Amino acid sequence: MTPDSDEQAPNESRRRSTPPVITDLRAALRGLVARIRAVPAAGLGRSALVTGALGALWAAGIGLAVAALSLVLVWVATPASGLGLTESLRIAGLLWVIAHGTPVAIGSVTYSLLPWGLAVVPILLLAYAGGWSARRASVDSVRGLGVLILSAAVTYSVLAAVIAELSARSTASVSWPWAAIHAGLLAVLAFGWGAARSCREIVAQLVPAWLSAMLRGGAVGAITILGFGAVAAAAALTVRVDDAITMAQSLHAGMWGGLGLLLLGVAYVPVVIVWSSAYVIGAGFAIGPAVVVSPFIPVTAPTQLPPFPVLAAVPQSATPVAWALPILGVVAGVVVGISIARSSRAEGRLTRMVLAFGAAAFSGLALMVVSSLADGALGDVRLAHLGPSPTTVGVLVFVLVLLGAVPSAVVPSPPARAQLAIAEPVAVAEDGNQTDDQADRTRADLPVLLDPLSE
Fold first, then answer.
1. 252 φψ region: left (φ > 0), alpha (ψ -120 to 50), beta (else)
2. Distance from C-alpha of 200 to C-alpha of 196, rounded to nearest angstrom
3. Among candidates 194, 169, 164, which has minimal Cα distance to 181?
4. Helix (H) or strand (E) holding 285
5. First-to-last CA distance in the chain?
6. 115 has pLDDT over 80
7. pTM for this structure?
8. Residue 114 pLDDT > 50, yes or no?
9. The sheet that has 109-111: what strands, in order across it?
10. Of 136, 132, 131, which is closest to residue 41 (Cα–Cα)?
């Protein structure tokens, strides 16, 4: 008997000993894999479904790893805290879910005014995963892009619900349905934005030019108003920096506690910017029951706030100069109108007016959504309602931006400046002179060359 026959004998005996059920199961799995591979890669194919889910899993895994590493470092650095490794990991999972905007219940109190700065990490991860997934899947259709985003959003929301259940504690917990909803919406926005950037040609087919100009103008208006709010908040905090330092010292947090307090303050910066923007446009914001901070209220009613350093920027009084702050909303509208006039130079005045109206509406809607994210509770009774009224902010932004956008969009924009034409190289005949046709072409181009110089 040859060596080959000796090797084949055990294999044949192994095949005979394999139960028929296992053989049928293997055959079924091979057939399933073959059918999956036979599906085309584009559109509704394997890549769009699988790659979207893989991108969401990657973003969630990295985000959880960042949160877990932070809590493990705190656990190692503060052994006197009494937290074990398992408890630290559960807190990390809870922190990751809260970073998506999910309200957290601590005892009998629900905290819904969350530090939206924590959402920066999952947003960046989801946007990068969206771009990677779109390139990996080679999406070449609108339907394929939709399936990619939907697959990622469903996977991400299911994972968030699971983490919310696993990280629930007796003292703090989040609702897994709300965790799934918030994580799914954030995944649609961030993952979809990243995927859309990698499929600009496909997105261009969906968004007409007039809608693109309108959305771009609205985004310019919203960003400008938020920029004014950021400057106003920074100025107020600079003026009252001594009060902020006093608040921080009164907490006696120590080195690690002070670092955590600093990070929490940075995470609440987006909320403070939205509050400041609402103050700038005249809507104001609430800091308790029947207590409103507004540029049109000379003295804010006294209320007891937690000793949080960022809250030192809350103005206690308003001077008559503050009444002029809403003019900044009109200035933002002027910027919107200029943007529309430049991007729609060839359109008529009526068209530009309609675009300015739509851009103002989009700015108001954007600030309304942002204000709803900065409105919530940090406790009960006096801290049960903090933040601006989203409806009031949206209406005021729409009116102020419209007042500045329509006139600046309708005013004729300056014509495009003529540019010097670049003459093509002229072939020279053997005798060193131009041919008759070349000379005629040069004389015809001469007025074009000299026209900008004669202006």
1. left
2. 6
3. 164
4. strand 285-287
5. 102
6. yes
7. 0.76
8. yes
9. 109-111, 104-106, 172-174
10. 136
**Binning pLDDT at 50, 70 and 90, where does residue 227 land?**
very high
At 39 the pLDDT is 43
The answer to whether 388 and 374 have CB atoms below 8 angstroms apart is yes
What residue ranges in 304-393 does DSSP mark as E strands? Answer: 386-387
pLDDT at 299: 82
Average pLDDT over residues 297-310: 80
- d(Cα 277, Cα 214) in Å, to the nearest integer? 22
pLDDT of residue 55: 93
- CA atoms within 13 Å, Cβ hemisphere of 148: 35
Euclidean distance between CA atoms 116 and 364, whole angstroms: 20
Q: Is the dihedral of CA 10, 13, 17, 23 positive or negative?
A: positive
Question: What mean pLDDT value characterizes the chain?
Answer: 80
- Residue where the block lists tokens 């809250």: 311
Structure tokens at 178: 């709300």
**Who contacts 265 (Cβ-Cβ below 8 Å, separation ≥6)?**
308, 309, 310
Q: Where are the domains of the chain?
A: 38-206, 208-416, 417-455
Q: Report yes or no: 285 and 132 within 8 Å, Cβ to Cβ.
A: no
Nearest to 312, CA basis, from 249, 398, 399, 388: 249
Average the pLDDT over 424-451 and give the result. Answer: 46
For residue range 72-83, what is the model confidence (pLDDT) as tens digits?
777 776 666 666
